[in-house]
Design a protein that fits this description.
Helix content: 25-40%
Distance between the termini: 28 Å
Order of helices and strands: EHEHEHEHHEHEEHEEHEEHEEHEEEH
Shape: globular
Strand content: 15-25%
Strand order of the largest sheet: 3-2-1-4-5-6-10-15-14
Largest sheet: 9 strands, mixed
Number of strands: 16
Radius of gyration: 20 Å
Number of helices: 11
Structural class: alpha/beta
CATH class of one domain: Alpha Beta
Length: 333
Amino acid sequence: MATTLWDDKILLIPGGTGSFGHAVVDRLLSSNIREIRILSRDEKKQDDMRKEYDSPKLKFFLGDVRDASSIDEAFSHVDYVFHAAALKQVPSCERFPLEAVKTNILGSDNVITACLKHRVKKAVFLSTDKAVYPTGAMGMTKALMEKDVIARSQFLAADDTVLCLVRYGNMLASRGSVVPLFLKQIQEGKPLTITNPKMTRFMMTLEDAVDLALYAFEHGKQGDLFAHKAPAVTVQTLAEAILHLTHSNVGIRYIGSYRGEKEYETLVTSEEREVAEESDKFFHIPAVFAQKHLSVPSKEPYTSQNTILLDGEETCRLLKQLSLFGGNIKQHE
């Protein structure tokens, strides 16, 4: 990342009170950035974050991305945007799919419109592996968010906001994820609940997530999508590793899969891999993908089944990087 990228700039993070927003603040607050704005509808989380950092560089705006008029002021004079506001819980989105539509699709479109109105230089929109070959409402709404970002980017002039995307796997120990759930169950003396022991998920830390977003800021062009190459683990192996690290004997209880849950996730489709540029760490999928007619793809999709699969010892090493298990990578409640 060029040292001048953030110098004297204003960054806005819709949905910035979550785990990703905290990780970005941890990374950038000590840089020469002028201001980081946090936009969300939860005043309690904002107040907690304000007290935690106690920094004049950090500013807070109350608003809901569903309501375009409530977020407009936050975009004034902003240089860059990380869009992290979303409904992300699969069961909740299955029960209330129209709520997911309002936030993940229409809310994201409101953010695009505000970026263009206020001539933001670049905006990076956060997506998920669940948007690829989606089976549930959360993934479907994120997939349409991706399509909307790419579609709107195609009509922009050279001096308009650059719109691009990043696509993540599971972020270890982020708010609402399975690691805090398992630790809570251990604390309560309850067995760890697993839906499908063979289910695999990509594993990345919040530091990896910030690395990917910053890479997109530095390299992204109109409509580009970036994905991080990541290892995966079975949920069974993850649960056993956590039991080992916590010296717990609560055991495991199998509860069966729920609606919208997939046995494995896909970060990059076969069609996207045909045009993707690959480095050691990242996939870069140019927006031309949305316009180009492709023949039958010859490459396999990049999935949590065919990436590097971590064993128990490797999973323990990854978990030990987190502050929850004594490591240096901070996690946020």
